[in-house]
Amino acid sequence: MTPTPDRDGAWLAPAKLNLMLRVLGRRTDGYHRLQTVFQFLDDGDRLSLELRRDRGIERPLGAPGVPAEQDLVVRAARALQAHTGCNLGVNIRVEKRLPAGGGLGGGSSDAATTLHALNQLWGLDLSLDELARIGLALGADVPVFVAGQAAWAEGVGEELRPVTLPEPWYLVLIPDCQVATAVVFNDPGLTRDSIPIKMADFIAGDQRNDCLPVVLTRYPAVAAAYDWLAARATARLTGTGACLFAACAERATAETLLAAARSDLAGVLNPTLPGFVAKGCNRSPLMAG
Q: How far apart are CA 237 and CA 223, in angstroms?
């Protein structure tokens, strides 16, 4: 699989969904042991990269309110420079579509796409394993975006096993709030002793998210959107939220639900992007066939 830009030269940073999330325990370093299933969506942020002949790394356009030096795309580029000693630079423009604090992996996906794009633009020829190791230092979700395959994940989310799943249409709702992952994982009410399951259990329907009860209690907008969606479909939370999703057999069904949500949940959903409909993908849309 070769990562490729689109016809306009932009690189997609696709969203992901956690189709289930179990918290198995807490490690001595404070991180939690997890089981989860990742699947990609054919929608996300778009990155445009302009090669520089010096070592400068600039981000002229990015996530609102995020200083360039804290942006994962800048940190990914600097990490790649440090790992390889490359003397080239880049200007990175990020057209954000995925919300911060939404559970869709926007920042991690942006970082992984930056690593892939610069691996080509800078002529580095690093392997997927090398890119994933660099990415893991940036965030536990970065390696799955680097690998580009739907996956069963364990550890802190970095131990990946590719899986093949149905690829339905998904309705994604975006409540008008940002969920802080650290707040959810530090909540005393979070289940931290779930029994590990097997892939067969997941396929048979064991697809709960242990973070859901905490998020519903702490974030009223998520609770209101969840109640609305659960009355009409099988509602699920991705990651620690705030985004909710439901699988639909047909795109038209998802679009009808989205239209109803825009009307019924005004004041609950994000006013700029209340939600969207996207296709589930076992192979990252960033990767060419």
A: 11
Residue extents of the structural domains in the chain:
10-163, 169-281
pLDDT(13) > 90:
yes
d(CA 245, CA 16): 11
pLDDT tens digit sequence for 273-287: 999 999 999 999 999
Fold topology of 169-281: Alpha-Beta Plaits (3.30.70)
Residues taking part in catalysis: 16, 141
**Could you tell me which of 165, 169, 238, 240 has the C-alpha nearest to residue 199?**
165
DSSP per-residue string spanning 31-56: PEEEEEEEEEEEEEEEEEEEEESSS-
Query: What's 10-163's CATH class?
Result: alpha beta
pLDDT tens string 170-203: 999 999 999 999 999 999 999 999 999 999 999 9
